[in-house]
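Recap from last week: sequence in, structure out.
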Amino acid sequence: MAKVKTNAIRILDAKKIAYEVLTYDNQDGKIDGVSVAVKIGRDPREVYKTLVAQGTSKSIYVYVIPVEAELDLKKAAKAAGEKNVEMIPVKDILKWTGYIRGGCSPIGMKKEYKTFLDKSCLELEHMVVSAGKIGVQIVIEPKWLANLTKAESADIRK
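Predicted structure tokens:
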């Protein structure tokens, strides 16, 4: 089991879901997804970031997309059945998710939000997402992440 215990890791352990923990040094302040991919020695196409948005209905949605990609707000809104969605301001991420920017995991948020995984992850054997703390990543099979977060796959990137 992992030395570092985050809420996401505790949930994976409790559900007996296979994962691997990767850690990286964040002292240089480079915590963007592409920098993280380089630091952990992974192809950026395998590393995903977790984005949080709010719809016109005021519902919160979670979108998991490759670190090199940009969320397409129109596609994201369509997937969620909303007229529009807007990114949550960085200052509000902790309030909604329990996580901070750079350490936001799709696993173990304060509440269970409707989650969408970019369909590109379905082509992968494993994907990498934040473990819920800056400097810690989880390698997990996309199907397990989808099952755990009750996520739908969708075309949500530009």
